[in-house]
Sequence to fold (484 residues):
Amino acid sequence: MKVNEQDAWVADIALDDDRFHDECGVFGIYGHPEAANIAYLGLYALQHRGQESAGIVVSDGRRLNFHKDMGRVGDVFHSDVLARLKGDSAVGHVRYSTTGASHVRNAQPFVVDYSRGSIAVAHNGNLVNAAFLRDKFEAHGAIFQSSMDTEIIIHLIASCYENTIIDRITFALKEIKGSYSLLFLTDETMIAARDPYGFRPLSLGRHKGGAYVVASETCAFDLIEAEFVRDIEPGEVLVIARKGEPVSFFPFGRNPVKPKPCVFEFIYFARPDSSVFGSNVYAVRKKLGERLAAEHPVEADVVIPVPDSGVPAAIGYARASGIPFEMGIVRNHYVGRTFIEPKDSIRHFGVKIKLNAIADVIRGKRVVVVDDSIVRGTTSRKIIRMIREAGAKEVHMRISSPPTISTCHYGIDTPRASELIAAEKTVAEINAFITSDSLGYLSVEGLYGAVSGAGASFCDACFTRNYPVEISQDKDVPQLVLFK
Fold:
């Protein structure tokens, strides 16, 4: 590729489009008189997992009431809206679309009335056999209100001839394949479910007032002053009702497959103050940086992170290498999507509106830049150019994860493999494209050394192409008996 062609490609990619996008976040509370308000706060804590839409559904014991819309939590919910959501149980959702268009009809929780009552569902994950199941339902005359895979679950529940809601949910879970952390809400019951591989995190907590809470990440518990109880296990269904303690059961049996939680939760998605899959995210990210320093040492004067997700790994790299850590790049946190660019072109406008180098930290120095990943390489290229223009003598790029060579099908919105620079280029070619003096990725072995305990296993398909669940499932899906 010629230099002018590269620059044109770089100019066409916005900063937001050269990152892995967060998936979704779910939050539920059962048995609290201010359920909607608590759910609102819980979603605030999970905002990093999805910024396209937000929704809350509440139950007062007789019916479900809900509000959802496009936008962030603070924009969707105001005091008058929350005042209308009366009830002592609530389920909430923040969304970034991994399947289905970014449209209000796809906002969650998904709420329906059907012959057996009302039910709402909030979903974090991605169903790999959704297209097959949807085609089958539509062939029987079913009508879908949205384009999201989550609606498949509702159709399965509604079509099942079992009597209890637990049996109908169990039926649905046995038909879907892929990743899911789910929260269901009926008039009287909240139900949490996690797929047998445990791809997406889901935790149980207890509010100081006695209410049970369920959330994608434990940082939501901290905000509402709830106590972490435990992670919901892979393949577990947890039923929270008005009498007694939560009831747990395993419709697939205990440990039908070896769990494969998503390793990228540690690298990028989860908030550093959360604990997921039994480990603190901040501590793991520092270990990633330490391993990276051991694998890719370099003589340098300063270590700087690409904020915000690169900060803990950069701290670990600096500590292990003995090179001073500095915040050499500042991030503007008060910028949304930018649609207007000056006619008088500003170089690297897309990056500089969000990131700016501190020349006094960088000028005349050999700089190690630590980031969590490289997607297309376009943002890394712009950042390196910005650092050089701030006076850096050398720029060495270090990435606290292995090269991303394959698309995720389990709930992370990654580009097509053809758009992933590491799927198309060698490390040397990527180094030449982003114009760094050297480039080092953490190895898969180094990644596991930082994130895993004895015998631990993770989904690492984006780095290895080893998919725990086959993506083409049509031949393996049981022939459903619908509308019996």
The first strand starts at residue 24 and ends at 30.
